[in-house]
Design goal:
With 368 residues, the chain is of the alpha/beta class. The protein contains 12 helices and 12 strands. Helix 4 crosses helix 5 and helix 4 packs across helix 8.
Amino acid sequence: MEFFDLKKQYQSIKEEIDGAVLRTLENGVFIGGPEVAAFEKEAAVFLETAHAITLNSGTDALYLALKALDIGPGDEVLVPDFTFIATAETVAQCGAVPVFVDIDPVTFNIDPEDIEKKITSRTKAIIPVHLFGRAADMTAISKIAKDGNLYVIEDAAQAMGAKCGQKFCGTVGDIGCFSFFPTKNLGAYGDGGMLTTDNDDIAQKIKLLRAHGSSPTNKYLHLTLGVNSRLDAIQAAVLRVKLRHLNDCNDLRIGIAEKYNESLAGAGDMIFPGIGSGRECVFHQYTITTDRRDALQKFLKERQIPTMVYYSVPLHSQPAFEYLGIEAGSCPNAALISQKVISLPIYPEFSADEQEIALKTIKEFYGG
Ligand SMILES: *Cc1c(COP(=O)(O)O)cnc(C)c1O
C-alpha cells in the first residue's frame, strides 16, 4: 500500500497523457506556446476567473503575488501558523515580515478572530491557506480585509476545485495561488504553478514578472525586474488532460473520506476533518486528530499502512524563523494540533480493498 501512487494514476489515463506529450514533442514548442495558452484558458474557465497565469511553481505564485502588490520591507503579512513553509517563506523572501496567526482547531485554517488581534498599522495582506483541501472562512476574512484595506492572497495550493459558497477557492480574494506539484489534486509531472485574479492590472504585472519583465512587443526591452517562472509546454499538455478528470478525481477523494468518516465513527478519540458550513472540501489530505498520534502511526507502519504527519512543527517554532523572535505561546491551537494530526492515505486510485485493510487496522489499534 502506498500513501500516494502516481504510477497507478498514470496507468489509468496513459493513452490520453501519452498522446498529449507526443503531440507537444512533435510541435517543438517547449516553453509557453499553444499548450500553455490553451491550459490557461481552460483553467480560467474551470475556476470561473478572468485570468489564470501559469508559473513554475506554487511557491512562485505566492512570491510573485506579493511582488505584484508591492509588498516588501516594512510591511507585515498575516499567515496561518499551521501550513507548508512556502506560505510564509515567500513573504520573508520579499523582505516583508510574516506574522503568524493561530488556527481554528476544527478546520485547521487561519482563525479570523486571531487575524484581528494581529493586525497592525504595517499589515498589508492576509494569506489564508485552504489547508488539506478545506476552504478557509473567506466570508469573515474578506470582511476583515475590506474594513482594514488589506489585500487577500489565497494559498489554494491544496484546494483546486474546492469551494467557499458559490466561488472556487482561489477566486474570492485579490489573487489565488495554485500548485501543480505531482501529488496535489491537480498534479503535473514535475513542478508547476498558477496564479488567478480578476484584476487586469495584477494580471498584466504577473505576466511581466514571470518573464524577466520583458515588454510584450520587444523581448529584450525590460520594463521591470522579474524572474524566470514559466510553465513547460509538456506540463501544460499533461495538466490539460488531468484537468478534464479533476472533478471525477475530487469526487473519488470525497467518497474515500466519507468512507473513513463512517467506518471510523466511534473509534477511540479520533476527531474527523471539520469542513465549515457552506464550504466544499476536496480532501487533498484526510487528516484526523488523536491524542495517541505517535503510537497510532507506529502501529500502522508496522502493519505496512503508510501515514504522514502534516505538519509536525508549526511555523513559529521553525528554526528558519527564529530570527523573528516569536514567543512560544503565540499560536496555542497550532502548537497543540501539530502534536495530534495524522493523515491517512487518500488519492483517487486508492482502492476500496486497500481502504478496508487500513480501516480494519486502525480499528484494531483502538481495540474494536
Ligand atoms: C504545495 C504547497 C505550496 C507550494 O507549491 P509548490 O508548487 O510546491 O511550490 C504552497 N503552499 C501550500 C499550502 C502547499 O501545499
